């Protein structure tokens, strides 16, 4: 090898070495960022539960005064009472109201008085239970107090990031919040509107896309359900 070729080889080696040193941190950072996104996508809300190694180790992270307390006339007797959330139930300061037992032990993501949806004089409530899993699919439920007990009158599949109190961070989490803002809906509500017993909300359509669902609630039951316009996440929203 002559002197000229040797020098060229040295230069190429030096440049390659510099590029390698510069590139390695970028690869590591990209991997770290990807891992961080994955954690954010499955991480439960800090004010609801604490994440350790597995869902079985999550624990109730609220005190006895609890974050969720709502007031309304839930039994339709003309007098208002309070409802409180605990890790396993929703109960009232009115001892005549039977507590609503949750199908989990970590409370709920939110608790809302939806008003009188069916026109019977009593207020209905909505919530989403916190489950010990890593999926973002959950169920938005509406309950009504009838016959001295709570009865589920409506349930629809939603994403946990579509419910109140959640601050969207990832692109796939932004769609419903952005759509509500664009169409002048309250971003902190799951029920978009209700009138004459008809409830409108954004739900996960059976085909996996978002759609506006119309539910007619009469006599403590969802008498009719139909899907309105299908809406899809778009970059131009």
**Per the principal axes of the C-alpha atoms, what is the gross shape?**
globular
**Annotation, overall tally of beta strands:** 14
Structural class: alpha+beta
Strand residue percentage: 35-45%
Indicate the multimeric state.
single chain
**Helix-strand string:** HEEEEEEEEEEHEEEE
User: Into how many domains do the coordinates divide?
Assistant: 2
State the helix count.
2
User: Separation of termini?
Assistant: 62 Å
Largest sheet: 4 strands, antiparallel
* Rg, nearest Å: 25 Å
Overall description:
This protein is of the alpha+beta class and 237 residues long. The protein has two domains: 42 residues; 183 residues, no CATH class. The protein has two helices and 14 strands; from the N terminus they run H-E-E-E-E-E-E-E-E-E-E-H-E-E-E-E. The strands form four sheets. It has a four-stranded antiparallel β-sheet, with no helix packed on it. Strand 5 and strand 6 form a beta hairpin. The N and C termini lie far apart (62 Å).
Question: Which properties best describe this structure?
Answer:
237 residues, alpha+beta, 2 domains, four-stranded antiparallel sheet, 2 helices, globular
